[in-house]
Specification:
Helix content: under 10%
Strand content: 35-45%
Structural class: mainly beta
Number of domains: 1
Largest sheet: 4 strands, antiparallel
CATH class: Mainly Beta
Number of helices: 0
CATH architecture: Beta Complex
Radius of gyration: 15 Å
CATH superfamily: Domain of unknown function (DUF427)
Order of helices and strands: EEEEEEEEEEEEEEE
Number of strands: 15
CATH topology: Metal Binding Protein, Guanine Nucleotide Exchange Factor, Chain A
């Protein structure tokens, strides 16, 4: 059974107001990804994927990722909405995180805008930021949502949420 929806306050969104199937929207929020003490991605030209019960996933343009920070990793997964994703190893400073990011080369038509864009698992990075606020990673090893004070849940991913 799902926990009760948290009522959003001023300037907040509820993940329970996000649609299913998910929505894709451009964002000019300032997104920063840090690994190994190095900023490996910095953009104001990303997309957010908004899905019921999930904090936003952010997809960053590959041109705003430091050259050499990404390389193909083993494995793939399939999203019923976006299609087949492949994983990426992320390098920054003295750290390497295998399969800590993902991308879609040929997403479904609804998500075509994010072809080649990169999503990072925030829990696998040193830190991720949205407009200067440090992100809290979404629970669960599979999901990669970025939780900030601007979005309230409860969020899918933790124990007992599989059936949501």
């Amino acid at each position: 059974m799902r926990a009760s929806r948290i009522e959003p306050g001023p300037g907040q969104e509820s993940a329970w107001d996000y649609p299913r199937p998910p929505a894709l929207e451009p964002t000019t929020a300032h997104l920063v990804v840090v690994l190994g003490g190095v900023t490996i991605a910095d953009t104001r030209a990303a997309y957010r994927v908004l899905e019921t019960s999930h904090p936003p996933n952010y997809y960053l343009p590959p041109d705003d990722v430091v050259p050499g920070a990404l390389e193909p990793a083993p494995g793939s997964s399939f999203c019923e909405w976006k299609g087949r994703a492949h994983y990426l190893t992320v390098r920054g400073g003295d750290r390497e995180e295998v399969a800590a990011a993902w991308a879609y080369d040929a997403p479904s038509p609804r998500f075509a805008a994010v072809a080649g864009y990169v999503a990072f698992y925030p829990g696998r990075m040193d830190a991720c930021f949205v407009d200067g606020e440090r992100v809290v990673p979404q629970d669960g090893g599979f999901y990669g949502g970025w939780i900030t004070s601007r979005v309230v849940g409860p969020f899918k991913g933790g124990p007992g949420t599989r059936g949501w």
